[in-house]
Write a structure and sequence with these properties.
By secondary structure, chain A is mostly helical. Chain A contains 13 helices and no strands. In chain A, helix 12 (about 295-315) runs antiparallel to helix 13. The chains are: A mainly alpha (about 350), B alpha/beta (about 500).
Chain lengths: ~350, ~500
């Protein structure tokens, strides 16, 4: 019976979210009627556009992949009550490191080289975020500020490499040389860009879920996240759990960048990853920091993104209008997510 | 006749489906001190919160001087002449007494600036009017707990309140301070005020009140003239059965020394005197050492130091003859440190986590295989503890949904499961009802028989005096008395040590 009540709670929570989503869609539709001269067309492309053909559908799912990783990165941090606001720089620099490794090893085999490249991106993100965690442990520096500042600085450094030493003059883009074809991740849904990294995303979500809920490390991480004083009292090495969640969070962000290079971009384009870090925060909030729920949340986000693009392409809406409609849906859904998260925290004594 | 009448008050907390008040009728006469008694969770505080506008009743109505009133907020309650002193003080330590008292209705200069002198003189006038003696320019930080309570009372008197509600006002006070508080209340009654006092302590009911209302399980079970009931009957009404408050105590079988503190001092920045000042203490196997003291005199620091959560500035701590002064809590836990903290809701448990997760905080290393939990063993452990300590409910629900008594049982169960020869208790029964307290006393006696060394820190003198074999009193960070418990040791004597009127140390 107690089990049942847990399920019923979940059902109530989901119903609440559904109502908000429905409401936000209604407002979005109203906005479209107001702002578009061919509203029905716009609505069609906005909401259904991403499902109309294999190309759109595959690309939409593919753009959800980095969001799954960054969303997981944020979920790990939030569950441990640390804040990693450096996602942007970690994704971007992870992508750069992957590109550099691939370019430096043109002769290596696909698997070994690819693994090395991904390991590099993972390590890069882990170090960047871990640094903030270390500062916090050592000197009490607020990791929220330090991670953001480090990430902002790193962004400029990556820009320098992409537009400077690595810039390929042949492609007329602000982008690096392309990586060798042996590194490309196999496509699974042609003609779209969807590739095997989507499988990795699902595996990563499962791994994070397992780590948090079934292992000793995950338990200590969650306990430190919920109540540091209690954890210290219980004999948990709490300072380690400032650094570790940051390291994990950074590693997942770095991996998002690395996989985007191997799977989708095949070269480091200037500011290609803009927004992936920030959107990870939103994805994690919608998923209520639940690692498995991060997957649908990321797809939801990618759907809105793809819908906005399709509506811009096929109807008369401008980028601004699409962004406004997107923002309205987003604000409402995130607000609901935050609200219920806060409500869950307030347990009666 | 009745000054205040509450009729058919019903309040359901839907979050945990608790009917806190079920059709409660409550009446207070003008100019009386009315005691409202009941165990934890009997609904006393909820009823008073409704009266004070902090909670809204689902059903029922309130009449003041035969006129129906609608109390939607504490502000509305103040306007009707109702004021409340909460169990936990709501004062700003950095502000002076006067500033705290006028907070919210400050006298102003040119409509904008705080008129400090005006505030002080007005508060001084109120202090004189009611015959208190305290300097309104003192900072609240520097006051004793008893004085802080006086500031809370001043706060509501300043607002010209006729009806004062005091929620467990004596729980943090010493004997002498309680005596002083009661004098104040009697004085207030004499000049025409009406007082409602919530309490657990039956002796106080007899001492101070004219009438008493007893609540149990959200209902009023009796209303009596205080003169016509005795403590036993009140106790029976409260718990529904007769409970003996006496603990059976066999003579101590004192063994080897287990925990020893040698000259332990703790200094802190910004403090003119050490928080702990050369504390020597020894707890033997099979012995309960009870430490008493008014808050702010080193008990909390002793708790932190003995549990390893705070490093000493100088001195040594030995456990079973081995130096543990510099060990981290983690290492102490591995050696079996068991500790029931005073702050059970923040330090002793993680409210949003499940009962099960709370139970394994110190012992989860035992349930691992390759870093992964063996679920079945964890669940078995949780079920076993729940059964042994008769903890109600599913171990998978958040511990924050349990009652205070059950939370403490979870903590107790967890700490006693640790294989150890020393255990530290701090305020183990604070705020608990009679039945839960008795349960804890029985367990304490049981582990004492098993030969554990027990250090008990408590502000409840009755508890210390009925449980401890050795009584230690702390004052300003120093041990001022260390006495073998016997019939000659009286509450008044301990109180004198606690207030620094007496000292044994050379």
């Amino acid at each position: 019976m107690k089990r049942w009540s847990k399920w019923s709670q979940l059902a109530v929570g989901t119903a609440g979210l559904a109502v908000t989503v429905g409401l936000s869609f209604l407002i979005a539709v109203a906005l479209i009627f107001l702002l578009s001269r061919q509203p029905l067309n716009t609505i069609r492309y906005f909401f259904i556009g991403p499902f109309t053909n294999r190309y759109y559908l595959g690309n939409m799912l593919n753009s959800a992949v980095p969001l799954v990783f960054t969303g997981l990165g944020m979920a790990v941090a939030f569950k441990s009550s640390v804040f990693n606001l450096g996602g942007e720089g970690q994704v971007y620099s992870g992508a750069l490191v992957t590109t550099v490794i691939c370019l430096a090893l043109p002769q290596a085999g696909g698997y070994a080289g690819g693994l090395a490249a991904l390991a590099g991106s993972l390590a890069c993100g882990a170090i960047l975020a871990g640094l903030s965690g270390f500062f916090k442990m050592k000197w009490g520096t607020d990791e929220l500020i330090s991670s953001f500042l480090i990430s902002a600085a790193v962004g400029f450094i990556v820009n320098y490499f992409i537009t400077g030493p690595l810039d390929d003059p042949a492609n007329n883009l602000l982008a690096s040389y392309a990586i060798g074809e042996q590194y490309f991740l196999a496509g699974i849904f042609p003609p779209s860009k969807l590739n095997v990294s989507s499988g990795f995303a699902v595996l990563a979500a499962a791994a994070v879920f397992f780590l948090l809920n079934y292992t000793h490390t995950g338990y200590e991480m969650r306990m430190c996240g919920l109540n540091r004083e209690f954890s210290r009292y219980g004999g948990i090495n709490v300072s380690a759990y400032i650094v570790l969640p940051m390291v994990l969070s950074g590693a997942l962000h770095g991996l998002a960048g690395g996989l985007a290079i191997l799977g989708t971009q095949h070269m480091a384009v200037k500011e290609f990853s803009f927004g992936m870090g920030w959107n990870g925060i939103a994805v994690s909030l919608i998923a209520k920091n639940h690692p498995l729920a991060v997957i649908p949340a990321a797809v939801f986000f990618a759907w809105l993104e793809a819908g906005a693009k399709a509506a811009m392409l096929h109807s008369d809406v401008t980028f601004e209008i699409a962004a406004i409609v997107q923002a309205v849906i987003f604000y409402l859904v995130t607000a609901q997510a935050i609200y219920s998260a806060v409500r869950r925290r307030r347990v009666r004594v | 006749m009745a000054y205040l009448r509450m009729r058919g008050i019903t309040k359901l907390y839907p979050e945990n489906n608790v009917l806190a008040n079920a059709d409660v009728d409550f009446e207070v006469r003008r100019n009386e001190i009315h005691a409202l008694v009941g165990e934890n969770g009997a609904g006393k505080t909820t009823l008073m919160k409704i009266l004070y506008g902090l909670e809204r009743a689902d059903r029922g109505y309130i009449e003041l001087e035969d006129r129906p009133v609608h109390i939607s907020s504490p502000l509305a309650a103040n306007r009707l002449g109702i004021g409340m002193v909460h169990q936990h003080f709501r004062l700003i330590p950095e502000f002076s007494i006067a500033e705290n008292v006028v907070l919210g209705i400050e006298p102003r200069r040119r409509g904008l600036f705080l008129d400090r002198e005006g505030a002080v003189s007005r508060v001084r006038a109120v202090i004189q009017e009611y015959g208190f003696s305290i300097d309104p320019t003192l900072r609240v930080r520097e006051l004793t707990v008893g004085q802080m309570q006086l500031v809370e009372i001043l706060k509501i008197l300043y607002r010209r309140v006729q009806l004062l509600i005091l929620d467990e006002p004596t729980s943090v006070l010493t004997e002498q301070q309680i005596h002083r508080l009661f004098q104040t209340l009697r004085h207030l009654r004499k000049i025409g005020k009406t007082v409602i006092i919530i309490t657990h302590k039956l002796g106080e009911v007899k001492d101070i009140s004219q009438r008493v209302t007893v609540m149990r399980g959200g209902r009023v079970v009796a209303v009596r003239e205080t003169a016509q009931v005795d403590e036993r009957e009140l106790s029976r009404l409260m718990v529904g059965k007769s409970v003996s408050l006496q603990v059976r105590r066999e003579p101590a079988a004192r063994g080897r020394p287990v925990l020893e503190l040698e000259g332990v001092s703790l200094l802190a920045r910004g403090q003119d005197h050490p928080l702990l000042d050369g504390v020597d203490l020894c707890v033997h196997a099979g012995e309960i050492v009870g430490v008493a003291g008014v808050s702010g005199n080193g008990l909390a620091e002793l708790e932190d130091v003995a549990s390893g959560l705070r490093r000493v500035s100088s001195g040594r701590i030995l456990l079973g003859g081995r130096d543990i002064t510099r060990l981290a809590v983690r290492e102490l836990r591995q050696r079996g440190l068991a500790y029931v903290p005073a702050d059970r809701l923040h330090r002793g448990s993680s409210l949003a986590s499940s009962v099960m997760e709370n139970m394994i905080i110190a012992s989860h290393h035992r349930f691992l295989r390759g870093g992964v939990f063996r679920r079945r063993e964890v669940e078995g452990f949780a079920d076993e503890l729940a059964a042994n300590f008769s903890i109600e409910g599913d171990p998978r629900v958040p511990i924050g949904t349990l009652s205070g008594g059950n939370i403490q049982k979870v903590i107790l169960a967890r700490e006693l499961a640790s294989r150890t020869d020393f255990i530290l208790f701090s305020e183990p029964t604070w705020g608990l009802d009679v039945a839960s307290s008795e349960f804890i006393y029985e367990r304490l006696m049981e582990i004492r028989r098993q030969g554990l060394a027990i250090l008990l820190l408590s502000s409840n003198l009755d508890e210390i005096m009925s449980l401890a074999d050795t009584l230690v009193v702390m004052y300003r960070g120093r041990v001022v008395a260390c006495l073998a418990n016997s019939a000659e040791v009286t509450k008044e004597l301990i109180g004198e040590y606690m207030l620094g009127l007496r000292e044994d140390r050379s």
